[in-house]
Amino acid sequence: xxxxxxxxxxxxxxxxxxxxxxxxxxxxxxxxxxxxxxxxxxxxxxxxxxxxxxxxxxxxxxxxxxxxxxxxxxxxxxxxxxxxxxxxxxxxxxxxxxxxxxxxxxxxxxxxxxxxxxxxxxxxxxxxxxxxxxxxxxxxxxxxxxxxxxxxxxxxxxxxxxxxxxxxxxxxxxxxxxxxxxxxxxxxxxxxxxxxxxxxxxxxxxxxxxxxxxxxxxxxxxxxxxxxxxxxxxxxxxxxxxxxxxxxxxxxxxxxxxxxxxxxxxxxxxxxxxxxxxxxxxxxxxxxxxxxxxxxxxxxxxxxxxxxxxxxxxxxxxxxxxxxxxxxxxxxxxxxxxxxxxxxxxxxxxxxxxxxxxxxxxxxxxxxxxxxxxxxxxxxxxx
Length: 383
Description:
Blueprint: E1 3-9, E2 37-42, E3 47-52, H1 65-77, E4 86-88, H2 91-95, E5 108-110, H3 111-119, H4 124-135, H5 138-151, H6 174-187, E6 199-202, E7 205-208, E8 220-228, E9 232-241, E10 244-253, H7 256-273, E11 275-280, E12 285-292, E13 298-303, E14 307-311, H8 313-318, E15 320-327, E16 329-330, E17 338-345, E18 354-358, H9 367-380
Parallel strand pairs: 12-16
Antiparallel strand pairs: 1-15, 2-3, 2-10, 4-5, 6-7, 8-9, 9-10, 11-14, 12-13, 13-18, 15-17, 17-18
């Protein structure tokens, strides 16, 4: 007879959970923002700490230059580009209005300078130089941006140009902006320092980074501002404190100061209110399950990943962890077979069950062992 076995792990354990976990944010009315859409993500746990209209389709303005930068950084990483390579400057790039790097028509610009022109100066001209140089035209480059965006998880993003210049179909979401920031940080750590640079000089003109958090908010080191009449003021920001990194997004605000303040508030809220706990580690034996008519009485149940979780103090106290599997497990059992799950229950948070695997091979018992085991089971029940 097969029984469903439940065991609840004591929350006094050194709490821990896993990096692949994505959850909805904890029900919490303690934070409010005037941003049209906002998002707060913990990179260690990949957990959403706050969201407001996360999937609202918005004009991202110059925040979409993060995707343009991604395209350049990817080619630098795989060797198709080098930082001292140069690209020609067209009249279209030179004439482009809005924020500028001040490239000169007919000359060539280094990739290293163009990348800083995009990231630090938000140069529309730099974006066009890159788009034309890498794809032949800005329109083709925008299609490549959209395709690459789909590949890296930007499900709500469509790009129609390289700069974020107003276009009715050029759209992103706060969730996608946070996802893109995470991919830049994780995929290109060797280049991420550029996002923290506070000024850049080109053609004899020195301009400041428009991200007001740099040098003002502890640990802030990126990423990108944006502004148009339709979009309002927005900022994708990131900060690291005590080896813990958060990404914040706040868009649709009415001034550069407001976008800086709302992102500062989001980051402070995430660092102050949530702590990260390690619940389990890869390869850890979570429990031992009885084996029916096996060469061994029990088999270890192991987890195949680190499990980490961002929790408020209130959520930590309410945390429940359950191990679920059919007991006894019939022999033979092969190592790495999934035999159960770990279930995490926290009010206001939604998690996927985490698989549990057999940690050893267990053969069938010999004839005498099977007879003895069956008798013991009938007399004493499952162990």
